Structures are given as C-alpha cells and as structure tokens.
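Question (not urgent): is this output format expected?
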Amino acid sequence: MIYSKLHLSETIEIIKKIDTKKIENMVNLILNIKKEKGRIFFLGVGGSASNCSHAVNDFRKIIGIESYTPTDNVSELTARINDDGWSTIFTEWLKISNLNSKDLIFVFSVGGGSLEKNISPNLVEALKYGQSIGCKLAGIVGRDGGYTNKVADVCVLVPTVNEKTTTPHTEAFQAVICHLIISHPKLKLYETKWESVSKK
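Got this back:
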C-alpha cells in the first residue's frame, strides 16, 4: 500500500475508535465553564502548542469563552525558561494569571506528560497546580495519555493504530476534535465566516 493510502486508512481507523461519549462530556464541561464565566488555559508544547494558539482563537471568537495560552508570548516564555527552568514555565504563568476554581486547564499533548520519563514535566507541574487550586482539567492526548489522562476530569485519548505515526495523528486529531467542539450546537455562539457568506 502506498504511504498516502496507509496514512489515511489509519485516520479512518482512529475516527472509528474515538470515544465520542468523552467528547460529549468535554463539551458539557466547557459549557459549565462558560456558564460560570470561567476561563480556559490551553497548554501544550511543540506542534501541540500551535494547536493551543488555534484553539484560543476559536474558543474566543466562535464560542465566546475567555481563553489564553502561555506559548503565545514567546518573550515571557523564553524568559521563564532561561531564568527559572523548563518545568515551571506554565505553573508560574498560571499563578500570575490568577488561576481559580472556575477555570479550566486544557492540555494538548502526544504523551500527556511524564515525570518518570522527564517528558513534558511542565504539563505535569501545571496539572498538579491546577489540582491544588481546584480548577477543572481536560486534555486531548495520545499514547496512554500519561499524567493528563490520569488526573483530568475529561480526557479524550486519540487511539494509537500505528506506533510509528502516533505523533502526527495525535496532533492532527487535536485540531479535528477542537473543531468538533467549537462547531457543537451546545457551544457555538457566532457563525464562522464562510458559512455566513454561503447563507447570503
């Protein structure tokens, strides 16, 4: 099988295996955050950080929820890495942002974070801080979900169908599930541009 067909066939397999009940639970969690006038803080590194920026845009503009991600400010991010170290960058940022019990930490990650393997310890520390504050926790992750999957109120696991393509599929499906959420009739507040033009 040529690679393009293999990759897309894996995508179809993932779609069939994703737990849609968990996605609906995530939608309900976000709806409650919105009703309580809480904020959403998206956390991720690498490609997942790009998905965080995209999510902030859509959640603010289409759903109408106050949302942020620390990776949008490269100056503060690199200053904190340089001065304080990698593992605390998100925790210290959340402290300055006055994270509270009405808010939601939303993690995008391939592995979900692991202190034992020293992979994304900044996500783990941020989730621990969120637990201490009493805010809600959510995630869209791959593999076994790592620490995020263990502690989140709702976590959608992107099924692994091929160990060699776990990262591209997980990061792609973060965007797919995010767009599902922002277009969900329970949450969608404002029309997207091309859909509004088509109606005219």
